[in-house]
Amino acid sequence: MSRATTTVKLRRVEGDLWEIPREGGMRVPGRVYSVGPPSPDDPALQQVANVAHLPGILRFSLAMPDIHWGYGFPIGGVAAVDAEDGAVSPGGVGYDINCGVRVVTTALLADEVRPCIGEVAGQIQRDVPAGVGSSSAVPRLSDEELTDVLLHGARWAVRRGFAAGHDDAERCEEGGALAGADPDAVSPRARARGADQVGTLGSGNHFIEVDRVAEIYEPDVAEAFGLLPGRVAIQIHSGSRGLGHQVCDESLDALARAPARFGPDYASLPDPQLACAPIRSPEGRRYLAAMAAAANFAWANRQVMTGLVVRALLRALRVSEGELQARLLYDVCHNVAKVEEHEVDRRPRRVLVHRKGATRAFGPGDPRVPEPYRAMGQPVLVPGDMGRYSYVLAGTARAMSETFGSSCHGAGRLLSRGEALRRGRGRSIARELEARGIAVRARAAKTLAEEMSEAYKDVARVVAVMHDSGISRLVARLEPMAVVKG
Amino acid sequence: MRVRGASAAEALGRLALAMSELLTGGATVEARPGEDAVVEIEGGPDLAGSAVALLRELLYRFATAREIATAIEVTGVDASGVEARVAFGPYDRTRHAEGLDLKAVTRHAAHLEREGDGWVAQAVFDV
C-alpha cells in the first residue's frame, strides 16, 4: 500500500504533547499526544497535518496516543470545525460509523464465575451471531422496523426487551440515538446490508469480553460507576456493520467527485481521501443525516447484544436477575461526527467534532453527561487487547479546554494484520490465552492471530499519557477472563 | 491485494477472484449449476474506478445474498464501467470460517493499469 513518506516537523509542547507547526495550507497546527517521542516519518502524522487543511477547522488537528494510519484521517484523530462554515468529512468518521464500546457491570464475583468461565464463553458464542457475514440475531427487519431502528437506536432495542436495565438508553452517549437521523438518506443498498445484522458482533477487532475488575484507582468514582474490585464486568465492542460501511462508501464516492464544486478550499485539499463537503451544503447535510441513522443502527446493534449476553449469563450460570444485577455502565462512540458546543477563544461556539478512533471525554459538571456521573465526568471506556487489560477513565475539565472533550479509544495497532499473521504462524493464540486463564471462543483462528496482544500497543502506556496530560483520569482496570470473537 | 494479467480484463477478473479467496479464507466454493450471471456496473472516472465498482458489486452480493464469485470473465472494462459474466456459489459459514470480514473496497491506491508487458490490478480493502 502506498502511503505518504514525507516527514513532519515536530516540537514538544510539554510532557507527552507535541505540535506539528502550521505551514503551507494548514489552517491550524497539529497537536499529538504520544507514547514516547513521535516518529517524524510516521505516515499518520502527515495525516494529522493534512487534516489541518480542512475548511473551518478550529484550534488544532488533534491526535490521541493510540494514533495510527487510517483512511484520510488518522485513527485516533479529532478535528472540530465550525458548525456553520466548516466541512464534514466521511473519512473523519470512518467506515464503521459509531463503532463503539460499552461496559455492563454485574454483582457476580469473578472468583465464583471462574470455574465455569468456559461455559459462559460458550453460551455467549452460541447466542450472539459473530464472524464474517453474521446475521439473524433477530428476524430480518422489515423496512418499517429498520426505519424505527435508524431513528431510535438503542431505544428500539430496549423496547424489544434487549436490555440490562430499563434505563440502558439513558446510559449511552447521546441517549443512544443521535438527533438528525434521516432514514431516507440511507440507500436501499445500505438497508439491505443491515436488515439482518442487528445484534451481530461481526469480525476483526470486535469482541465480547467477560472481565474481572482488577484494580481501582479512584474508589469513589469507581463505585459511582458500579465498578467494585473482584466483580465481573462485560465489554461489548462493535459498530454499524454492513449498513454503516455502505453509507460511508456511498458518501465518499459522492463527495470525491468534483470537489471543486464546493470551492477552491475543497479542491486544494492535500489528500483526495479527505473528501468533504460544506456542512450546510445538500451533500454535507445528507451525509450527516445518513451517518446519524447509521450511528443509531450501531447503538441498536450493541443494545441487542447486551440483551443476548445478559440472557447467556443467566442461562450459563443459572443465576437469577437479582443475583446477576446487570447494569449498563455506559456506551461510547469511537467513530462519529457530532455537533457540540465548546468554548473556543473564550466564547461558546457550535462545532462539529469529528472523532475517528477517539472517545468523548466530557468533564465534571457537564449537563450532557448522564446525571449519575455528572459530578465526576463521563465514563471513558478504553478497551485494550484481548490478552492484557482494558481501562475505565473519567473525563476532565482539561479535556474540555484542550481536546474538544476527547480522549483515546484503545491501544492502537502496532502491527499490520499481515505482519501479525506472520508472527502468529505455528502458534496457537487460543492455547496461549487459555494457559493464562483466559477462555477463548472464536470462529476463526486467523482472527485470533491478527488480534493477538503483540499486534497492539500496550494500552496501559496509552491511557497513562491521557492521565498524565490531565485529559482523562484513571478509574479502574479490567482484565479478561473470557473473550468471544468472530 | 495486487494481481497481474495479460490484459486489463484478465487482471480485473483475477482481482475479483482473489477477493473471493479473502472472503472464504481460501476454501473452495461449489458453483451453482446453471447460467452465469451477467453483471454490468457503471464505474469511472477511470479504469481503477471501474475496477473498484465491480469489486463493490460483488461484495454487496456477498453481504446481502451470501453469494461468492467462483468464476469470472470480464467481457468489457473501460473508464465508464465493467461488464462481466460471473458464476456464483454459496458461502458456507462452517467451511469458510477463516474468511476475512471485508467492510469495504476503498479507492485508496486502487489501480488497473499497464505495467511492463502486462496489466496490474490492485485494491485496498477496509477490514
Could you characterize what this model shows?
- The complex is a heterodimer of chains A (486) and B (127).
- In chain A, 31% of the residues lie in helices and 25% in strands.
- By secondary structure, chain A is α+β, with helices and mostly antiparallel strands.
- In chain A, the strands form four sheets. In chain A, strands 7, 8, 9, 11, 15, 16, 18 and 19 form an eight-stranded mixed sheet that branches.
- In chain A, helix 4 crosses helix 10 and helix 6 (188-194) packs antiparallel against helix 8 (241-256).
- Chain A is globular.
- Chain B has one domain (2-126): Archease, Possible Chaperone, Chain: A, domain 1, CATH 3.55.10.
- Helices cover 28% and strands 42% of the residues of chain B.
- Chain B has two helices and six strands.
- In chain B, strands 1-6-5 form a three-stranded antiparallel sheet. In chain B, strands 2-4-3 form a three-stranded antiparallel sheet.
- Chain B is globular and about 40 Å long.
- The A-B interface holds A 1-2, 71, 95-96, 131-133, 189, 192-193, 202-204, 242, 245-246, 248-249, 252-253, 256-257, 272-273, 417, 443-446, 486 and B 23, 25, 45, 56, 60, 62-64, 66, 91, 93, 96-101, 103-109, 124, 126-127.
List keywords for this structure.
heterodimer; A: about 475 residues; alpha+beta; seven-stranded mixed β-sheet; 16 helices; globular; B: alpha+beta; Archease, Possible Chaperone, Chain: A, domain 1; three-stranded antiparallel β-sheet
Secondary-structure blueprint:
The complex is a heterodimer of chains A (486) and B (127).
Chain A: E1 11-14, E2 17-20, E3 30-33, H1 43-51, E4 57-68, E5 75-82, E6 87-88, E7 100-109, H2 110-113, H3 117-127, H4 143-152, H5 154-159, H6 188-194, E8 207-216, H7 219-225, E9 231-238, H8 241-256, H9 264-267, E10 277-278, H10 282-317, H11 321-324, E11 327-333, E12 335-344, E13 347-356, E14 359-360, E15 379-382, E16 390-395, H12 397-402, E17 406-407, H13 417-424, H14 429-435, E18 439-442, H15 445-450, H16 459-468, E19 472-485
Parallel strand pairs in A: 3-4, 18-19
Antiparallel strand pairs in A: 1-2, 2-3, 4-5, 5-13, 6-10, 7-9, 7-11, 8-9, 8-19, 12-13, 14-17, 15-16, 16-19
Chain B: E1 2-5, H1 8-24, E2 37-42, H2 47-65, E3 67-78, E4 81-90, E5 104-115, E6 118-126
Helix pairs in contact in B: 1-2
